[in-house]
Write a structure and sequence with these properties.
Blueprint (H helix, E strand, L loop, with lengths): L5 E5 L4 H11 L5 E5 L11 H17 L4 E4 L2 H6 L1 H12 L4 E3 L2 H11 L4 E6 L1 H6 L1 H9 L4 E6 L3 H6 L6 H17 L5 E4 L8 H8 L4 E3 L2 H14 L1 H4 L8 E5 L3 H11 L6 E3 L4
Parallel strand pairs: 1-2, 1-3, 2-9, 3-4, 5-6, 5-7, 7-8, 9-10
Helix pairs in contact: 1-11, 5-7, 9-10
The structure holds D-glutamic acid.
Length: 274
């Protein structure tokens, strides 16, 4: 039985924040990271386009032998995961698995909020998909969730402008907008894998009373738990502690920008999607 790496997918660099946490919790496995940097951001794109792009990238990771793929992207998890799981996987290979980031995030947040008033900061795509409210109401019907679209944040982060005063203007504006909609919010979900990079600024504008929740840690723990429960999948994961990086953009560009997210130098390869 051939053992293969775990695939981690994001529209761009944001998934590296999830990969970091996963590798910290599960350092023994091999990983393949794929960033669709040539077509990022996904956040402003339609349901159909995000679905098509995500499926194409999942197939590319399958072609690299990954049997388990994590959509380390909220927009892809919100707009494509369900369809891929229910419609595509049975046709492609019913033994392969694709998992997202929304469910583990919600499970954790349901335990954190004290007054059942939760805020969501995310891309327009994730907010408009209504996936967070839909999933939260399945598990915690008593929670009131209020959302705010933050269309400027991903471009600011991808362009390494997030520590400048210009970025603070947009971060403050969106956090304040969210809290105007519901002043009782006690927990804010960072529903985009890029946002951990501006966690501190968000915390600052939200104020001490509010818990700002980044999802990397819970996604990593939930993957660890999943692998414990699904030994048939775990047994087929190779354990060489390696990570290879692929991007649909130029590999030089990926390596230089990835250093914003990873505090180490990496080598990446360009991948032509078919
Ligand atoms: N990292 C993606 C997410 O978690 C958003 C980036 C994008 O808009 O492509 O939603």
């Amino acid at each position: 039985m051939k053992k293969t790496p775990i695939g981690i997918f994001d529209s761009g660099y944001g998934g590296l924040t999830i990969l970091n946490k996963i590798r910290k919790h599960l350092p023994q496995y091999d990983y393949v990271y794929l960033g669709d940097n040539a077509r990022t951001p996904y956040g402003s794109r339609s349901f159909e386009i995000v679905y098509q792009y995500t499926l194409q990238c999942v197939k590319a990771l399958f072609a690299m032998n990954c049997r388990l793929v994590i959509l380390a992207c909220n927009t892809a998890s919100a707009k494509a995961l369900r369809t891929i799981q229910q419609r595509d996987l049975p046709k492609i290979d019913a033994t392969r698995r694709v998992l997202g980031v929304i469910r583990p995030t919600i499970e954790a947040v349901g335990q954190i909020t004290k007054n059942q008033h939760v805020g969501l900061l995310a891309t327009s795509g994730t907010v408009q998909s209504q996936s967070y409210p839909a999933e939260i109401h399945k598990l915690f019907p008593e929670i009131k969730i209020t959302s705010e679209e933050c269309p400027m944040w991903v471009p600011l982060i991808e362009n390494n402008e997030f520590e400048n005063v210009g970025a603070d203007f947009f971060i403050k504006k969106n956090v304040e907008n969210l809290l105007k909609k519901d002043s009782q919010i006690d927990t804010i979900i960072l529903g985009c894998t890029h946002y951990p990079l501006i966690h501190k600024q968000i915390e600052h504008f939200a104020g001490e009373r509010i818990k700002v929740f980044s999802q990397g840690e819970v996604v990593a723990k939930s993957l660890a738990d999943y692998l414990k429960r699904h030994t048939e999948i775990e047994e087929r994961c190779s354990k060489g502690s390696s990570c290879s990086y692929f991007t649909t953009e130029s590999s030089e560009k990926f390596c230089s920008s990835a250093s914003i997210f990873l505090k180490e130098k990496i080598a990446a390869q360009h991948l032509e999607l078919k």
